[in-house]
Amino acid sequence: KKADFIIAFSEAIKRDLVDNGFSACSIRVVHNGLDHKIFDPVLNLDSDILDIKPFAIRRPYFIYCSSISGVEKNHLNLIRAFEIFKKKTGLPQRLVIAGNDGEYSETLHKAVFDSSCAEDIFITGYFPFESLAKLYAGSDACVFPARNEGVGMPVLEAMACGVPVICSKSGALPEMGGDAPLYFNPEDADEIADLMEKVVQNQELRSEMIKKGSERVSEFNWETTVAEILNVLK
C-alpha cells in the first residue's frame, strides 16, 4: 500500500489488486519473459521411455507441471478427468504430475492410490528445472486445470517445447495462451476428458495447435519484459 507504482505480471493479477482496493492507475501490466534457449522443441524423442535421471517415464503421457500447493491447482479433478478418458477410450496414455510437494501432497497421493487408474499415474515430486523442456516435449499434451492461476508460465513453456496445451479458461490462462490452447471449465471433468481425447486423436488439430502455440510464445521474451519495466521505472 506504500508503493508508488505496482508492476503486475498479468491483467488477472491487476484485476485482483483493483478488486482489493488498489488504484488501477498505479498498476502497469508487464508480462513475464520466457527463456527460449531452455524451452525449445526437443528433437529425437523416438524412444518409448523418456530417460531423465533419476526418472524413466514411459510414453505416451499427459503432463501437468505445478506445485502441489492446494485445491486451486485442481489436481483431483484432473485425476477424475483422466479416469473418464481411460474408461472411454482405452488408450495407453499415462498422466505425469510434476511439481514440488506442498501442503496438499498427502491428499493428492491418497487420491492417486485410490484411483482406478493408479498404475497409470506417476507423481515425480520435485523435477529439475533444466530437464523440464524434455519432460514437456516427450508428452502428448500439457493439461493445466488450475482454477485461478495468476500467470501460468507452464502453459507458455509447454507451447514453446512444441506441445499442444489444453487448459482452464480461468485466471490468466486465456491471457497467456491466446488462441493456441483448447480451453475448458476447470470444474467439468467430462469436458476435460473430451479435450484430452480430441488432442491425442486428431492429428490435424494437434498440428494446428502446435503451430499457433509456437507463434504465441514468440511474443514472450525477456528483452521485451526488461524494456517495459525500464519504461515504468523511467
Description:
It is a single chain. With 234 residues, the protein is an alpha/beta fold. The protein contains 9 helices and 10 strands. The chain has helices at 11-19, 75-89, 105-114, 132-137, 153-160, 173-177, 189-201, 203-217, 222-233; strands at residues 6-8, 27-29, 49-52, 55-58, 61-65, 94-98, 121-125, 141-144, 165-168, 182-184. The chain has a 6-stranded parallel beta sheet with strand order 7-6-5-8-9-10, with helices on both faces. It has a two-stranded parallel sheet with strand order 1-2. Strand 3 (49-52) and strand 4 form a beta hairpin.
Concise summary:
This protein is α/β, with parallel strands linked by helices and 234 residues long. It has helices spanning 11-19, 75-89, 105-114, 132-137, 153-160, 173-177, 189-201, 203-217, 222-233; strands spanning 6-8, 27-29, 49-52, 55-58, 61-65, 94-98, 121-125, 141-144, 165-168, 182-184.
